[in-house]
Amino acid sequence: MRVVIGEDSVLFREGLARLLADAGHDIVARAGDAQALEQAVAGTRPDLAIIDIRMPPDLTDDGARAARRIRQANPELGIMLLSQHTETRNAVELVSQGGFGYLLKDRVLNVDDFLEAIVRVAAGGSALDPYVVSRMISTHRDPLGSLTTRELEVLTQMAEGHTNLGIGRRLWLAERTVETHVASVMSKLELTTSKEHNRRVLAVLAYLTARGSQRNNQAD
């Protein structure tokens, strides 16, 4: 897999590059700021871009904003955002399109899970950090207030990008049982679109949007 890394910390960037290279991936470019990142993606056409949310020049959300522009120009490109903090404002638009992941940086230390996540994202799937997901679910019971504890657990696993089979393995449930819980989640959230992928994405967006709304209210 061809990968571009956008990260301003040289130590983290080179460590990540070494990790990916050892796993057999091809690091086609490295960038230390948002502008260089966009140029690198345009010039190399990778399969995946791994991007730090906070990058120069402003060290705010430059990486996330660059990711949105990169996605507009490269709809099929997998994008993995990394951050030291829980920030969801820029994730809403990207996660709805698939091929998107958002992990806290310390998750990279779980090497096998991280490598599995980037492959899933490059293939068009999703990977959202369990901590981010749990924070969203625990603090936003609308429109999720009608879900049972088990349904919330299943939704968490869905948001992390796992299939029904994968959810069953993690929660020690039969796949048919997971299917029943997923159907209940979709019904309670009133997600009626016929496409299963879109329904799963919309389920994630239900609380991503709620999170963004709360942040806006706090800012006001």
What does this structure look like?
The chain has 220 residues and is an alpha/beta fold. It has two domains: 2-128, Rossmann fold (3-Layer(aba) Sandwich); 133-219, Arc Repressor Mutant, subunit A (Orthogonal Bundle). 55% of the residues lie in helices and 14% in strands. A six-stranded parallel beta sheet has the order 2-1-3-4-5-6, sandwiched between helices. Residues 211-216 have low confidence and may be disordered.
Quick summary:
This protein has 220 residues and is an alpha/beta fold. Helices cover 55% and strands 14% of the residues.
SSE topology:
Layout: E1 2-6, H1 10-22, E2 26-31, H2 34-44, E3 48-52, H3 62-73, E4 78-83, H4 91-95, E5 100-104, H5 111-122, E6 126-128, H6 130-139, H7 149-159, H8 164-171, H9 175-188, H10 196-219
Parallel strand pairs: 1-2, 1-3, 3-4, 4-5, 5-6
Helix pairs in contact: 2-3, 6-7, 7-8, 7-9, 7-10, 8-9
Helical segment count: 10
Q: Characterize the biggest β-sheet.
A: 6 strands, parallel
Q: Tell me the strand order in the biggest sheet.
A: 2-1-3-4-5-6
Rounded mean pLDDT score? 82
Give the termini distance in whole angstroms: 44 Å
| CATH architecture descriptor of the largest domain | 3-Layer(aba) Sandwich
Shape: globular
Global structural class: alpha/beta
What are the key terms here?
single chain, 220 residues, alpha/beta, Rossmann fold, Arc Repressor Mutant, subunit A, 2 domains, six-stranded parallel β-sheet, 10 helices, 55% helix
